[in-house]
Amino acid sequence: MKKLLSILGVLLILGCDPFVTEFEDLSDAVMYEANSKSNATYDSGNVKVVTWNIRFGIARFPFFGDSCGDDVILDDATIEENMAAIADSLNAMDADIVLLQEVDVSSKRTGYMDQVQYLLDNTNLNYGCYASMWKADFIPSDGIGRIDAGNAILSKYKLTDAERIQLRLRTDQDDLTQYFYLRRNIVKAKIPALAQGSKDFYAVDIHATAFATDDTKQQHIDKYVETLAEIQSSGDYFVTGGDLNSVPPGSVTDFCLSDMCDGDDYHTDQAEEYHKEGSYFENFEGEPDILDTLYQAYDAAIGSDDANLPIHLTHGPSTSYEMNDIKYDRKLDYLFTNGIWENASSKTHQAAWELSDHLPVSAVFNVGGE
Known about the structure:
Blueprint: H1 2-15, E1 26-28, E2 30-33, E3 47-53, H2 76-93, E4 97-104, H3 115-121, E5 127-139, E6 145-155, E7 160-166, H4 175-179, E8 185-190, E9 201-207, H5 216-233, E10 237-243, H6 292-297, E11 299-300, E12 333-337, E13 347-348, E14 361-365
Parallel strand pairs: 3-4, 9-10
Antiparallel strand pairs: 1-7, 2-5, 3-14, 4-6, 5-6, 7-8, 8-9, 10-12, 11-12, 13-14
């Protein structure tokens, strides 16, 4: 029966206009502006950068396929309340540049709110660009329906030359699943106001794969490193970060048991899968050291010696509630630059635990620092 349904699904896809938007390797990002701009003229000084996976504004809601949940749709009032709290948090941080992941702009699950526009209109940030990683008129699974979710860069200062850089698709899925699956990306934009003489200034945002069991994560990190190296080789500056879905060197790499839902069975001979997908960080050779290149080449907001300290863990247990008195269990979110972060400026904002399953990380870029 499953095979028949799959065949019917493929025939339906081939016989109609595509449900799912597919992307070129390189394309323009979607540009945004706040409806009412704050006064943010850059003269000199440092710049505060934040990265945050906001979990499309659903906070700790037990979403399907994530956090052992069965639900898909959150009511509009709660989405509005959550997004207001996220906006308030960004205003309190007084961020100049914000790198966001898991932002919805027109999705059934979040009441079709354009969350990029909402944040621009409710913060001191003025400009934005957006790159979809999951855009479909209809996802025929679990009531998801229409979806448009992706990465965004928000800034007090004007963005130009914004690009969406496609990351490789997973190769460990059947064709039908892959067709409806995420198309992850890097979004990159220039910020002319922060240029240093002949050196341009870029912001680069990434959300790497979480659940692939093949070498897709390595491919994503490699493409990210390549993108940053191109900026570096041009003699320009960048600030960058995002949800890399990778733990720092020297980390615990197996979270199968802590992520296990009721009724699951892992690490036993009877388990159909010995490891829980997305919880085991050694699903291909070398993953525990996958971020070494970034740490060695660039200045990390949270250095490798500190990255595994409890105060810098950025991910909450996947079950969407406090399990075993542990709110934060691993670091997955990072900031890097080819310039210099201001000493003692970096912070992991663990007080934001209730607003997402990821925590924001901030740091201050030392403009003109060598």
